[in-house]
Design goal:
Distance between the termini: 51 Å
Oligomer: single chain
CATH architecture of the largest domain: 2-Layer Sandwich
Largest sheet: 6 strands, mixed
Number of helices: 11
Shape: globular
CATH topology of the largest domain: Methyltransferase, Cobalt-precorrin-4 Transmethylase, Domain 2
Helix content: 25-40%
CATH superfamily of the largest domain: Tetrapyrrole methylase, C-terminal domain
Radius of gyration: 22 Å
Structural class: alpha/beta
Bound molecules: S-adenosylmethionine
Strand content: 15-25%
CATH class of the largest domain: Alpha Beta
Strand order of the largest sheet: 6-7-10-8-9-11
Length: 299
């Protein structure tokens, strides 16, 4: 590519700025360490997002804190691949919540965080995705703040961003969606406080966390409030994991598709899903499985 002299000089100065701005990897590492040690000298908690599963999506800071931790409290959503990167001398405590599995009550997790920090430990609270997106990260920090425990937050890639990216589904696209909404499908009973008319609007992508169990209700409400029954949908199961699976179909097929999917899974509703055929790039374990439901043929 050719540059005019002024573009070339702009580029050169940008490079210099970047060199100073980015400082080089070892300098960045030092800075991260300084932050980590300063904060952790008297015992503190790092609330760390581990992303949707692929260890390659961890941030540098997340990795550094995990390797520096004395205690790590983690959820079921944190992948084994990521847990393997934790300091091998650290105490690992599973405080997960999962239907059908032993669950640690939230109050107990909060208390453990406070107790370990007060005991002077460098604690990492490791969560799947981003700790502030449907992750109760805020609730845990409120308890730490009230107890006078120092903390820091390391954001992670939330499932809506990670799983869709690995499924070849852009959340927004100038031709299909000018906005994206993230909601939880973890509703209490059939009644809910969601504004279905807003959620059913066209030209937007709706991403539903924890929606498998309520897929039939979600399907009915979206169609009843005006979303076209033919709107493309996808369910991304274990997004970014080696065994990721992507199910695609129409909104009218959501409940049927959901029956074949396992948690953790995200439901994506919107025209952007049509791009998955063209843009799917991630090859899961053997080959990415893209399951299209054909209700008419009963497959
Ligand atoms: C309690 S929420 C936690 C969300 C997390 N804090 C985040 O930012 O991704 C759990 C839900 O996130 C979604 N989820 C998390 N990881 C996922 C993944 N790898 N693939 C698909 N969905 C995922 C599922 O809907 C799952 O039921």
């Amino acid at each position: 590519m050719d540059f005019t002299p002024s573009q070339a000089s702009q580029r050169q100065s940008l490079r210099q700025t970047n060199r100073v701005g980015s400082l080089g990897f070892s300098k960045v590492k030092q800075l991260i360490q300084r932050i980590a040690f300063k904060r952790q000298a008297q015992g503190s908690v790092a609330l760390v997002g581990s992303g949707p599963g692929d260890a390659g999506l961890l941030t540098v800071r997340a990795l550094q804190l995990m390797q520096d931790a004395e205690v790590v409290l983690y959820d079921y959503l944190v992948s084994d691949e990521i847990l393997e990167l934790v300091n091998s001398k650290a105490e690992l405590v599973c405080v997960g919540k999962k239907a059908g599995f032993h669950s640690v009550p939230q109050e107990q997790t909060n208390q453990l965080l406070v107790d370990f920090a007060i005991a002077g430990k460098r604690v990492v609270r490791l969560k799947g995705g981003d700790p502030f997106i449907f992750g109760r990260g805020g609730e845990e920090l409120e308890v730490l703040a009230a107890a006078g425990v120092s903390f820091q937050v390391v954001p992670g890639i939330t499932a809506a961003a990670g799983a869709t990216a690995y499924a070849g589904i852009p959340l927004t696209h100038r031709n299909y969606a000018q906005s994206a909404m993230f909601i939880t499908g973890h509703l209490k009973g059939e009644r809910d406080d969601l504004e279905w008319a807003t959620l059913a609007r066209g030209n937007q992508t709706l991403v539903i966390y924890m929606g498998l169990m309520k897929s039939s209700h979600i399907q009915k409400q979206l169609i009843a409030h005006g979303r076209d029954a033919n709107t493309p949908i996808a369910i991304v199961e274990k997004g970014t994991h080696r065994d990721q699976r992507v199910f695609t179909g129409k909104l009218s097929q959501l409940a049927d598709l959901a029956e074949g999917a396992e948690s953790p899974a995200l439901i994506v509703v919107g025209e952007v899903v049509t791009l998955a055929n063209k843009l799917a790039w991630y090859q899961a374990e053997s080959q990415q499985e893209c399951v299209e439901l054909d209700v008419a043929s009963g497959v």
